[in-house]
Design brief:
Length: 338
């Protein structure tokens, strides 16, 4: 499978897992306080990541770049999950998955550095198709009046867009290992939520098996796997393209709602899902064509940096050296700002 298609497939799988996460989070928050769900999710994720790091051999446990990127990304990811989890606790799982898809419209506005001169107008038309799809999906499921949970999910969409763009900005051109970066993020999240949920920790001992299964699913699949896969994929594509593929998340959320929660699948829901997929792939094609049409000056810049670093310690040049984790067959794209 070509590298570009493999990257797309991974991002779609992440979207599927995240689409199912809303129902899992809603089920877990019905049994436990939101902050306790978050600290359990992060702590289990951190333990899993630390275990994976321990069994892998490397020159260093964590590099300076991994720590510098992981700490701020851990904070932004924690904010995303905090707002999302409170949102899904106060609205339906389907509505949460639908509203968060507005990230696909917001991310390109924040990802200016990846597209010199801006994205072509057709890209925003494709994003508009996705917005129409969201409206149809919401109407098809009978969701009209905004609730507090809906507004929280809208806020989560804004924060997630910034987080996706920040992942690309902080990891591009650096030798960052996704596992080690994800481990830093989960440890940061655990440290942030543990003091806030400390007094509710005894409730975990009283949680039933079904609740623990939801927590393990949220931790191991929706956090560890999804964070690793997203970081790996974003390093091999642009934040805008990644956001478009992750934008299929509401389709999976609707499918999970219909299959597992018995939600009604109407004509408008089906039409909205079809428009979402159409808009996603149309926007992806536009973004990819635009990215590959931009002259790639990285080779010249890297040549300058290599010759400069022989006689100086300029950190500005060192950040432009291609990441050792990136595929050599990745389509050319304009370098991002550090």
């Amino acid at each position: 499978m070509p590298d570009a298609r493999r990257t797309d497939a991974v991002l779609l799988l992440v979207a599927l897992v995240w689409g199912s996460s809303y129902l899992s989070a809603q089920t877990a928050t019905a049994a436990l306080p939101v902050l306790l769900v978050l600290v359990a999710r992060y702590a289990l994720s951190a333990l899993a990541c630390l275990g994976l790091v321990a069994v892998r051999r490397g020159r260093r446990l964590w590099t300076r770049d991994e720590l510098r990127a992981g700490v701020p990304l851990g904070v932004t990811q924690a904010v995303v999950l905090l707002v999302e989890t409170y949102g899904v606790a106060h609205t339906s799982a389907a509505n949460a998955g639908l509203i968060i898809s507005l990230t696909i419209v917001l991310t390109p506005l924040l990802d200016r550095s990846g597209h010199p001169g801006g994205l072509p107008p057709r890209f925003f038309v494709a994003a508009g198709v996705c917005v129409v799809a969201v409206a149809l999906l919401m109407t098809g499921n009978g969701f009209h009046a905004p609730r507090s949970g809906d507004l929280l999910m809208l806020g989560a969409a804004v924060v997630r867009a910034g987080h996706v763009a920040l992942v690309g900005r902080l990891t591009s051109g650096r030798a960052i290992r996704p596992l080690h970066l994800t481990t830093v993020q989960t440890v940061v999240g655990t440290a942030l939520f543990l003091p806030l949920a400390a007094r509710d920790l005894p409730a975990l001992a009283r949680a039933d098996t079904a609740t623990w299964l939801q927590l393990f699913y949220l931790a191991l699949f929706c956090s560890v796997f999804a964070f690793l896969a997203q970081t790996w994929a974003v390093q091999r594509t642009s934040a805008s393209r990644a956001s478009l593929l992750l934008g299929t998340e509401p389709v999976w959320a609707a499918a999970v709602g219909v299959a597992l929660a018995g939600e009604r699948f109407t004509f408008f829901t089906g039409l909205g899902a079809a428009l979402m997929v159409t808009g996603t792939y149309w926007g992806q094609a536009i973004e990819r064509a635009h990215r590959t049409s931009v002259p790639d000056n990285r080779a010249d810049k890297d040549s300058v940096c290599r010759s400069t670093t022989l006689t100086s310690t300029s950190s500005a040049c060192s950040t432009r050296v291609p990441s050792t984790t990136a595929s050599s067959t990745t389509p050319p794209r304009a370098p991002r700002s550090p």
